[in-house]
Structure formats: C-alpha cells, structure tokens
Amino acid sequence: MRSFLDADVQADLAGAVADKAAAQAALVKKRADQNRRKKRSRDKLKAAQQVEHRFLCSEAEAARIVELRTVRGGIDGPYELTEYLLTLVRRDWEAWQAQQAALLEAGPCARCAKRCRAAVRGCIKGCPTVTTPRALLLS
Predict the structure, then answer these.
(1) Measuring CA to CA, which residue among 52, 51, 78, 50 is closest to residue 65?
(2) pLDDT, tens digit, for every residue of 17-42?
(3) End-to-end CA distance of the chain
(4) How far apart are CA 136 and CA 54, in angstroms?
(5) Nearest to 44 by CA among 83, 6, 84
C-alpha cells in the first residue's frame, strides 16, 4: 500500500508520538513519586501516636505556607502539609536542644552560683549573666 504522506511528515509524526509517550511516562513517574511520598507520610503517622491539631491563619499566611511547601519540596513536588509542619517542629526541637545544652555549658551565675535557671530568669535585678527569656523565643 502506498503512503500519502512523504517521509518528512511521517518522521515528524513519529517524533511527536514519541514525545507524547515520553511526557506520559514522566507524568506517571511523577505521580508514582507523589504517591510514594504520601504513603511514607501516612506510614509515619500510623507508626506514631496521632494527635490532630487545627489552626487558623490568614489568607496571606496560607499562601506563604503553600509557596514554602512547594519551594522546599524541590523536584519531588510540594511537601504534604503534615510533613512540612512536622519537619518544622523537628528542626525547632533540635534548635531548642542546642540552646538548652548551651545554657548548661554556660556554667553557674557569677552572683548566685545557680545553674541554668538563673541564666534564663535571672537571680536578681541587674545580674550581668542574665539571658532574657526572649533569647529562647522563636526568631
């Protein structure tokens, strides 16, 4: 049977079909990666004791959260909200542990000889070794 299309047009059509197949394969892979990430997140939640929290935020804060989840997720796609928030909590916990260790290493107060508590709250007004509680707040 004789073809009505010349060789160039047939080659272009074959290339377009191959490009479409490659794009579909990439989409399938991306969806599989997203499903794998979601399943990992669900498995982590099942393994841990689960507690549900709800919070309210403004539209601007919600938009920031969406943007940060997308940017921080990288090429794998955006983080799930739970995964993103748990990562933030874990990192803050690690920073808190480092702050506690630094307070303990600071040694006793020069005036009252008490350890960590004096450094956080202050033993007396005007104590030179006082670290205000603000130093422990999120920055």
Answers:
(1) 78
(2) 778 888 888 888 888 888 888 888 87
(3) 76
(4) 25
(5) 83
